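pls design
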């Protein structure tokens, strides 16, 4: 009985030692589990914080994207308006350019016509001037001949007058 009692007591001590060992392991595991739970809790809070920041960032990005899209659309509209204005101004200037070009061609034709007319007029005047010069020269020559003849005739008349006068004196 003593042997059985000792044996059973040995088994109880072994069982208590084993229970003590398991209890220590359970406490260690419980402490580790507590650390893991705390770490998990911190990770969950961090994840919630990150999710909140992500949500805020996503909302900010959507607002920024919307504003950027609106700004881009406004700038695009402004550019289209400026392009339309420049296009119509270009058409007006092109039409004005064509008109000025046409006027230039008309003026060049008119200038050439006037130049030709001037040249003809100059030639006509030159011919008239030459003709009048020749007529004048001819008339001057005729007048000089007439003056010469009249002088000769005057000399002859003086001579005749002198002779008549001489004869008259002789007769007296």
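designed seq:
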């Amino acid at each position: 009985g003593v042997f059985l009692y000792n044996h059973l007591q040995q088994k109880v001590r072994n069982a208590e030692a084993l229970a003590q060992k398991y209890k220590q392991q359970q406490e260690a595991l419980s402490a580790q589990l507590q650390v893991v739970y705390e770490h998990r809790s911190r990770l969950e809070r961090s994840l919630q914080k990150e999710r909140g920041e992500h949500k805020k960032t996503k909302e900010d990005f959507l607002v920024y994207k919307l504003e950027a899209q609106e700004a881009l659309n406004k700038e695009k509209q402004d550019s289209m308006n400026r392009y339309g204005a420049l296009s119509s101004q270009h058409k007006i200037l092109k039409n004005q350019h064509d008109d000025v070009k046409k006027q230039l061609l008309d003026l060049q034709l008119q200038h050439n016509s006037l130049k030709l007319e001037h040249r003809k007029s100059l030639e006509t005047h030159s011919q008239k001037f030459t003709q009048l010069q020749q007529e004048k020269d001819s008339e001057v020559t005729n007048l000089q001949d007439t003056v010469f003849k009249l002088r000769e005739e005057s000399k002859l008349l003086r001579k005749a007058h002198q002779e008549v006068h001489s004869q008259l004196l002789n007769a007296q």
